[in-house]
Structure formats: structure tokens, C-alpha cells
Amino acid sequence: MIDNSYLLGLFGQSTTWGGGTTTTARKAKAQPTPPWDSTREIPQSDLLRSALAGRSLFNDQAARLDLPGASADYGKLFSLYQGLASLAAMADRAGTKGVASTELSLLNKRFETGLSEVSNWLSQAGFDAFNMVQGTSSSLSKSTAAVTRDTSKSLTGVIHEGAVSDPVAAFQGDVRFRITVGKLEQTVHVDIDLTEMGAQTRSLTNVLGFINGKLEDAGVQARIGREMIPAEERSIKVGDKTVALPNGPDRWALLVRGSSVETLQFSAPDTADAVYVTQGTGSGNQLLKFTDGGVPSGAGIGETHWVDGRLAQDGLPEGISAIRASATDADGNVWMVADLSEGLGNQPIKGTSDVALMKFDSAGRLVFSRALGAADQASGYALAISDDGRVAVAGSVTGALDNGAAGANRGLSDSFVTVFNLKGEEQWTQRRGATAADEATAVTFGADGAVYVAGRAQSAMVGASAQGGWDGYLQGFSQHQAYPTAPITGGLQFTTQFGTAGEDSVASIAVDGNNLYTAGVENGRAVVRHYELNGAGQPTLLGMRDLGAMSGEIAGIAVSDGRVIVAGTTRNENLAAGATVTTGYSGGTDAFVLSMDGDLGAGGDRLSFHGGAGDDTVADVKVHDGKVWITGVADRPLGGLADDPTMAYLSRIDPDSGAVEWTRTWKGAGDQAVTGTIAVASGGASILDRLGLPTGVIAQGDSKQLTAATSLRVGDRFYVVDSNGRSRAVTIEARDTLQTLARKIEQASNMQLKVTIASEGGEVSGKDGETTLTMGGFQRLSIQARDGREGAVLRAGESGRDALAGLGLSPGFVGKTSGADTKKTYGVQLPGNLNLSGVDAAKRAGEAILAAMSVVRDAYRGLAPANNTAKPIGQPSAYMSAQIANYQAALDRLMGG
Q1: Closest alpha carbon to 819 in 846, 850, 785
Q2: Average pLDDT of the segment spanning 642-664
Q3: Among the four residues 52, 219, 406, 733, which has the most C-beta atoms within 10 Å?
Q4: Measured between alpha carbons, how far is 651 from 441 in angstroms, rounded to an integer?
Q5: Rounded to two decimals, what is the model's pTM?
């Protein structure tokens, strides 16, 4: 039964009674009227107008208290609430349908400034009865960003289903390969030929025993074992119920066990070229591996929609929203650049989107990923690998990138190019933008190591002149290092801008010796430009070729044996008028391959069209050994809808004859197969693919630098505020690791905090004295108050350079959160990366602000004095008794009583 006094209180009937008579008791005012009371609320329109006029969101003098002698904490709470209400007003306006882009940009800019105001105000507020922080309040804080530990073990994909004594399909036939073991003073080659097993069953047990016997005889520590992979759960739908089925058979993978003093490398005597294709399906992104002959192929365990010639199908990490470029290096590894909508695994991103550079081995396993570290938004459009192993990524970035700098206009995109070494460590980044929007869409290396970037811009790039509308541009960068241990820097060498008064762009660039070619669409027409590079790398335009109305897209340009090859899609059957057409136009949008003389003269043009009567696309093109590889969507019915079934294709074409020498088509999950990029590796396919083993040296570790392992950039920072209110900055440096950062945080907290490196996963590998040694798994920061100390506050860095976001640490108080002598800490949990860049972003921001306003109301209630109001005494009147009975019955119904 509910207390009668509570029921009366719900309906404003605070009453005392005795002997059947009632008298109303006057309740003394215990707290000042808050700003969310209907009598005090300020209209949203007024808050919005004031904020956009540039006035501060906080006016402590205007916080009116209508209770004499009330704590000053009330005034501060009311001021904070009004500041948050102003942010909420901006978020609400930004989420309104039909808001102009100019107004949205203004709202976003003022909102970001307002977030900084909130952060600064909270850091200086100084409440008496409690603490209030921007983030959370906890006794322990762990980073979600983690650094991988080194391991000498490497696990393949599943190669066998069934018992370990059963014959393994992957071991049948001619299986020969070499294991090369690098030791400190020698290199040992161990040749494996399963025919030496004779009539013995080629089961997991027998084959691994045979291989390990060879390794033992060679005197090396490396071994190859097996590991069971949990069977997939299976179910079937019966009506509206899901019925579980028995699990499938045992599944097994190979486990390569190396050692810290040996390197392992696999190779095979018989190889063929490998072609890697990225694709999106109804079940996610995938990396497919094909070969055009010379190596037997077959469907791997668990693979779907297999076609002859495909060697592997591997899922790509979640969080990828787009893949626009891929390439292979000299060791057969696959590199790709992708857009991220969320962090990959233990690598949170700082903004709403970022760019990732990912490296996969030849077996499709992720070796490492590198986030650009954009504070707001970024997109990756192009990728190139130099002969000396450097990797260049180009694209666009909106908002801050380095040291909080956000370009000429924070709301518009700028071009960027970043160069990494083979370890995936950033060497240098150049951000070059026009006053209006621009983006880098192509990148390549010159023979001298120079980096050439092409793209488009809506206004003049620095050092160039605008032509009107969107223009194409070309830039060159050189690399410098003052002395062997000095930082490597990139410097701009030139910028040239070109095009028409209409919409122009550059889709691809190629360098052959001192010749540089660009291909793009200018005012709706396909245009190829030819530049000559002088000794200093400066370009001179030698010629330009207008190929006619594009009515499609250019996928790429390359140079092979002095011939310039352009590929893409078009509806113009008269493209490159006068060319020798080796294969005719089929209708709709067709793929095309055009081969031209190096001087772009029209006399030697050879053009071939490829496709059906519907629409065909070319997502990417690569030229390898004089042959053209293209991939895309095949023969989609004209007028098809976005969710209609699609079929992907991969073809190899002779650019001179137009002959399709090899082609495959396939479907994907949900009848959706849309390919994205191509990468070709010479000799990258072999018997090793059937075994799930990679070519090249197996990686045993990754960079421990935080700027490589996380999305942090040099110069990112956050602040630590100790119990005395003293704030110290913790700034990320190029060589920082988890260990060096832990020491920095402890020192910045005046030793209030204890920061350790927490290990997760992995396995024990031995002992060093009393220290247990582990390998594999991950390591994270773990922060708590030292024994007997209060703790400290972690405060986010400035907008655009906040290191807490890159570490996956929440701003707020870390320390004692309970105990009689502990002051309560409230966390408003307001992320510093909120923005109003679009409707969805405005919705997220609005929800976060409303939650923060709720925390302020909680703190207000927490300040309320103890409730000493006496309960009603005596007996109520007959009328009041009837009312109470009605209220009780209503509550019982609501509560299921």
C-alpha cells in the first residue's frame, strides 16, 4: 500500500488532519526556483538569437536566486543550465528541415565555440558542495585505444573441416613449398614436398608431423601446429520460430609458431599473378583473390558465391564505409585506403569519419591499420606505392588535422597528402587548400621519388589561378631530411590549375620517366593532358587531347610500353572519334579501354567497348604486363533501382586487339555484389593460398608509437587538473608510447594518479625472474587514484587537437567516488567532438546536451536540504478518504496490482 501522504503529495494536497478536520500546512521554500521552471524558462528563440549574436553562453550575474542565503552553487548550476540550453537551441535549429547550408555552417561554428566555452567554464567553476566535470566520474578509467603486443604465432584461416585424422583436401595433389628461417648468423631453407609422404594419409596429424620433422632436422625452433576454430552456430526458421540445429563439424586452422630469434618466410616454386578485388555485399565488405591460371583454385571452407579462378574470400573489418584505392607492394602485400565511420577494433577515431591505411598480407589477413587522425571528417581517394617502399595517401579533410588548424574555412574540405614508410609510420603530411572547397583525387610517385597529387578545387589554390566553377589542379611535392636522425618533411614544389568555366575534375594521373599524364572530365568532356617534367620536377604542358563527350566516368590512366591507356565508362559510342574500334559499343553505359600514342596524337588510337545492352560500370582499372584489368558491375538493366540485384565482374583485356582474354562474373550476399578496387601482384598466387599461408616474412610485431597505433597526431593534447586546481597539459610527441604517456600523466597529476599498462588477451610465454612474460593480445592505459590520494580531472584538449578522443578516454574525474569523506562528483558526459554538420549529427548533439541538462537537475536535487516535513496525523475526512482510495486503486492498476 502506498503511503497516503505520498498520494496526497502527488496531487498537491499536503495536509494535516485530526478528528476528521483538515488544515493545509504551508511548505517553506527549500530551494531557489530553477531556470527549467515554467516561470523562469527563457524562450529558445531568445537563447538562439543571443548565441548567434556572439554573446557568451554564460552570465553568472544573471542567475537570479529567489531564496535569500541560498548556496552560491545554485547560481553556478543555473548559469551552466542556461549555457547548455543555448547549445540545445542551436542543435534543435540545425536539425530543422530546410535549414540553409550557410546558416548550418554558422550554427556549427558557433556550436563548436560554445562547447569550448562549456569546457572552460566547468574547469573554473569551483563548486563547494560537489564537483562538476565535463565528462564522467569514475574510480577507474581505461583507454579503449590499445596497442598490440608482439607475438611469434600466426593463425591462418580455416583449411579443414572434420577429424584431424581425416584426409585434408588442401593437402592433396602437388603440394610443394619452402620455409625460409632467418637466424642471427644464417638463413636456413626447409623444402616441403608432400609426395615424400608416400601412401601415408595426408591428414592434419600426419602432414604436420612430417613438416615439423623437417624443421627439427634443420635445427630451427619454428613449428607448425593446428588450432580448432569454434564451429558456426546453425539454425532454421520454422514459422515464426528459430530452431537451433546441431553445430557443424570441427574446423581447423594452421598455427605457425615462430620465435623471437627467428624470422619465417614462405614461398612456392610455381606461381602465377594474383588479382585482389574489394567488394561490398549485403553482408559487408570483402577482399577477393583471383588468379588467371597456372595455380589450381577451389572454394575455401565457409566461402560463398565461388567462381572458378577465385583463390580466397576474406571479410574486411567493420567500420569501413568506402574503399576507393588499393595497391600491392614488392612483397605481395595488399594496401588499401578506406573511409571509416567508426574506429577499427581498438583504434577509435576522433571525429565523425576518418581515413584508414590498411595493410594485408597475401593471405588476406590484416597486418595493421593506420588512421589519419582527423578531428572532424576525412575521406581517402587515392593510394600509391613507390619503388623504395613509401606509401602515399591523398584525399580531403574537413575541420582540424594538425595542431587544431582547420584550414581557410572549417566547414569546407581541403586537400591532403600523407606519406608513410613500409612500417606504416607517418613521415610527412601536407594540407593544401583553396579558400573554397577542394579535394585530392589522385596521387603517384615520380622516378626521382617526388610525389604528384591531382584533384579539383572550387577556387584558386595557393600559387595558382582559378578558371571558374570546379577546376582541376596538379601539385608536386619533394621530401627532405636535414640529417639522418632529423624529421622527414615534405615541401610543395609547384601548383598548376586548369579547366573551363564549368565543372572540371581529375580522376587519375600517371608518370612514365619525365612524362606526366592526367585524365579527367572537363565541362562534361573527357580530357587527357600531357606534361613534361624538367630536372627540378616542374611541369610543362606539351599537349591536351579532348576525347569528346564523356557521358560517364574515367576510372584510371596508365602508361605501358610508351602507350597511354585510359579506361572508364561511357554512353558515347563516338568517344575518341577516328579511333580504330576493335570491339563495338553494346548499349547503355559500356566499359571502354582506349590505347593512345604517348604524344596523345590521334593516329594510333585503338578503342574497345565492353558490356551488354544494360549499364556496365568500371570501378577501377590496373595495367599489368601490358594487359588491362577492369572490375565493376556487369550489365545492369536500364532504369534499375538501387536495391535491385547486381552482378560483379573481373576481366583482363588486351588493349591493342580489344580481346577479352579472361573474365568472371559472380553474385554476392543479398544478391548485391559491387566491386570497388583492383590490385595486381606478380607471382602472388601459389599453392600457399590453399594452405592459408602468406608469402613474404610473417610479421611478429607492429609499431608501438601512439601516432601509428592510434588516431593520435603529434601535438594532440589534453589536460590533467590536480586536487589543487592546477592544470597541466599532456602533449603527444612523435616517439610517445603507452609507457612514456603513462609517466607524463602521473607527473601532470602531481602524482595524484596511478597509471599502469593493462594487458588483455595473449598467453604466458615464460618468466623473467618473478616477472611473468606474455605475448600477443593488447595493452591499454589504466588510470586510478593513488592510495590515499583524491584523484584528478582529465580535461579534453582544445577543439581539433583533443588527445582523449584518440585514446578513447572519457574526460572527467578519476578518483574516489564513495565514502563519507568523499565529495560527490557529477559528470555531464558531454563529448568534445559533437558538431552540427548535418541532421544526424545535430540529433546526436541534441541528445547529449539534454542528457547533460538532466545531470544539472540531478545536482540541483542533490543540494536540497533533508526533508523534515511532518507526515499527516489523525484521520482524514470521509471525502478525503474516498479520494485516497481512488488514487490508490489507480496506482494499483498502473503497477499491475
Answers
A1: 785
A2: 93
A3: 406
A4: 24
A5: 0.85
